[in-house]
Amino acid sequence: MARAVRQTEAADSLRYSITGRAPEQGRIRAEGWVGTRPAVGRVRITTLGGAEPGTLELRLVGRHLYSSMSAAGVRESHGRHWLDFGPTAKFRSGGGLRVDMTAMRDEAGHNPVREAAFLTAAKDIHRTGTETVEQTRTTHYTGTVTVAELRRRLRDQDGPGRAGRRRSLDVYAEQGVDELTLDVWLDGRNQVSRQRVRGFGRHGEFDLTVTFHDVGAPVRVRAPATADTVDVRKPAHRPER
């Protein structure tokens, strides 16, 4: 299992899709692209329930993080559709506020297969059989593990995925999640084809399934046009009327 996760995580590029439910958001679906040479990422998340339904798109290009704006934001920016948060996670906005975009940068550029590695810490991991995923024969494994045990395991691990896995655990901890139920499907090439993470916290139940597509296929992510972006690091400027 650990070898399969490393192999999939090490791919130069891939596309993935997400379906399921998230606390306080309701049903969501997402599609993402991630590449490492060069480092680029793009994810489009659609929330179908909760208090703020709608679609958000994040792009990571040339180390710059871009985020799409809501209809209200487009109106306030006089027709521009994107925010440019610049090349660093922490900075001061044009209005002098301290901004930390670490979580959004991570969401835009990470490979979600990193969470499949959590299953290797489960003491009850077992094979449930074979299933077809995206017209490919796979082997299905499942198990449960506590967030506390995952944190303990991470202290003894190294590698580029460690920081991202720690941030994932921070999210679960903030939601009051104590235990995760994990399912992973491996294909014949010993790569992760699908994963599912379930849990229950103080804000309700979550159940997210990620399916991986086009592992190793080229990924191209383009930055929005400069004329269509607002640089949040610069003072607001209203065009003359």
TrEMBL record:
SUPFAM superfamilies (UniProt xref): Prokaryotic lipoproteins and lipoprotein localization factors (SSF89392)
Highest taxon listed in the record's lineage: Bacteria
InterPro entries: LolA/LolB/LppX (IPR029046)
Protein name: Lipoprotein
